[in-house]
Amino acid sequence: MDYSFSMFLEERKNSGYKVIKRSINPVYRKLLSNKKRYLHLFGGAGSGKSVFAAQKMIIRLMTEEKHRILLIRKVARTIRHSQFSLLKALIFMGELGEKFKINEADLRITSLINGNEFISAGLDDREKLKSIFGITSIWVEEATELEYKDFSQLDLRLRGRSKNYKQIVLTYNPVNAHHWLNTKHFKDEFKFRTTFKDNKYIDEQYISVLKNLKEQDEEYYNIYALGEWGVLKNVIYRPFAVVNIFPAEYDEVIYGLDFGYNNQTALMEVNIKDKIFYLNELIYECGLTNSDLISRLKDLNIKRGSYIYCDSAEANRIEELKRAGFNVLQADKSVKDGIDYLKTCKIISNPDNTGINKEVLSYCYKQDKDGKLFDEPVKFNDHAMDAIRYAIYTHFKKRKEPKIRILQ
Predict the structure, then answer these.
(1) Residue 162's domain spans which residues?
(2) For residue range 159-192, what is the model confidence (pLDDT) as tens digits?
(3) Statement: the pTM of the whole predicted model exceeds 0.85
(4) What CATH number should be reported for the domain holding residue 285?
(5) Could you tell me if 366 and 376 are in contact, meaning their C-beta atoms sit under 8 angstroms apart?
(6) Measured CA angle at 281 (ends 276, 282), to 5 deg
(7) What's the CATH number where 78 sits?
(8) Is 267 among the domain residues?
């Protein structure tokens, strides 16, 4: 009887994970058997590296015993719309929903076949991280968000006896050649670089976006299309100051909204106190329809009279938001004037603003292959930057108040 039940479990497992295995991009298949402690999946945008990381994790969870795999990002809340969302999508695309229990509140996914589970934690919640035990592998998404001391602490968490090999999978774009991920080397590591050319599922429109980067800025193209380590030049803003504690009260609160679907929808809250701008990143995610966005705005309890400055090219979406009761206004999209104005302002971010803090470091002026510099930014990874500019520049320009000059 024991033998028959074991065979039954094995058949149930195999019928599921093979669906996922068949969909893996060919370039990654050899990495299913890679057992190095540190597996770096890095390269260009759209290369499918995060999808493969999720595929490998699901296959290991279904076919190996006694697993507790930790999903990690710098900020816990960003896991929901990245790793957790991707794992769920693959589970349901593989028609494996009945084999897993998905806990939306705790961002936990448990196998109903063998009890293995994915658990989630952010480095912003140290106490939760300390309480997690029995980790058998780790997946770090957007690993460039982590400082080396963060990584060292994670590395120490992956210890103890285990029936299976322990592995830390790191997925990231090589945005800065001086980053510790490029300069530090570990004894038992494997680094694997891919580009959009390795992803057989990528759509033609996104390929065009990536290829177009070459016409805008050679270094940008090398990093985000070719997946090569580099150092971005002509960065537009100095990094925003990042602090943990904001004022308890503000003189005024406004919002900037950049629409997206395949790209991120970015909703930024701009809190103003003594002519200093404090930023909160409320939404920064792909795949939101207008109905989804309206629902999220209601959940955020944004006051109906609050100014929300939006991309003026999206008139239909603006009208729909207005009919839902929100005070949405068309933003002034004067890019050069808006950027020049923001350069005079003191702008402060916080550690939770992962989209803002990442974009500001790569928001660059265009430069052609002959070194000619243009007064406009590269159109890529700029959704938070646009939303912030819409809010601050339009709000003060429309009110016809004198421009604020604040020394940094």
Answers:
(1) 2-202
(2) 888 889 999 999 999 999 999 999 999 999 999 9
(3) yes
(4) 3.30.420.280
(5) yes
(6) 125
(7) 3.40.50.300
(8) yes
